[in-house]
Amino acid sequence: MHQVGVNPHSDVLRIGNSRVQRALIPAPVTWKRSTYDGKPYPVDFGAIKNISRDDQLAMLRIPPQLMGVVPQNAGGVGSIRDASQVWAVNELEPEQARLLQINDWLGEEVVQFKPYEILAVG
Fold first, then answer.
1. I need a surface site. Which of 20, 76, 118, 122 has the fewest CB within 10 A?
2. What's CA 43's distance to the chain center, in Å?
């Protein structure tokens, strides 16, 4: 029978004579993980949040200015109008074209889209 040993200050799970890397479980804000020299260091939750946000934006393929993301630098994020038009051409229209194929499959028009346009403010 294998023995399982867990050291709460380590990322390594021991099963018998094997070392298996274990996943870190999210912990409270006050949690600190020890380094190899035994000195704790705080976890930077702000950096984790920003990385997670950027990963979500990349996965959804939506420009940050269309999602309301506040820029982290002085340069800003550019024109919302330009980003919206590029997003519509590169992302929205190809998806609409795929969905319009349902009409060909069914033999009648059941799916239709209005053309994408940016509303004028004023």
1. 122
2. 20
